[in-house]
């Protein structure tokens, strides 16, 4: 019922930029946190960036200064602006959200379908 729908990734040259978006649908209340994870070929899934309802952010060291996470609470949408992309950024990017359930007694973690971002010349 509650789901995250991600925009499409794509092929980007090194040094290029790309913005991903993810919208939470089927949910009345804004997710407490929304973020992005990624899984590179042969690697474990890792946190890229996360943003709280109040706008507090956290980034992986590997993307600090290059990626920017933001959200539109009215639209239950989170964005990831990726600048200065590197080949090592190539991965499947997954949207993540924690939505309040049970009258706010707990959070339900949900995931997007994943979208492939390939950084290559």
How is the secondary structure organized here?
Elements lengths: L2 E4 L3 E3 L5 E8 L7 E7 L6 E7 L4 E3 L7 E6 L4 E6 L8 E11 L4 E6 L3 E5 L2
Parallel strand pairs: 2-11
Antiparallel strand pairs: 1-3, 3-8, 4-5, 4-9, 5-6, 7-8, 9-10, 9-11
Overview of this structure, please?
The protein is mainly β. 0% of the residues lie in helices and 55% in strands. It contains no helices and eleven strands. The chain has strands spanning 3-6, 10-12, 18-25, 33-39, 46-52, 57-59, 67-72, 77-82, 91-101, 106-111, 115-119. The strands form two sheets. Strands 2, 4, 5, 6, 9, 10 and 11 form a seven-stranded mixed β-sheet that branches. Strands 1-3-8-7 form a four-stranded antiparallel β-sheet, with no helix packed on it. Strand 4 and strand 5 form a beta hairpin. It is elongated, with a radius of gyration of 14 Å. The model has no long low-confidence stretch (mean pLDDT 94).
Largest sheet: 7 strands, mixed
Question: Helix tally?
Answer: 0
Total strand segments = 11
Query: What number is the mean pLDDT?
Result: 94
Rg (CA only): 14 Å
Strand content: over 45%
- In N-to-C order, the SSE pattern is EEEEEEEEEEE
Unreliable spans are none
Shape: elongated
SSE-based structural type: mainly beta
Helix content: under 10%
- The termini sit apart by 39 Å
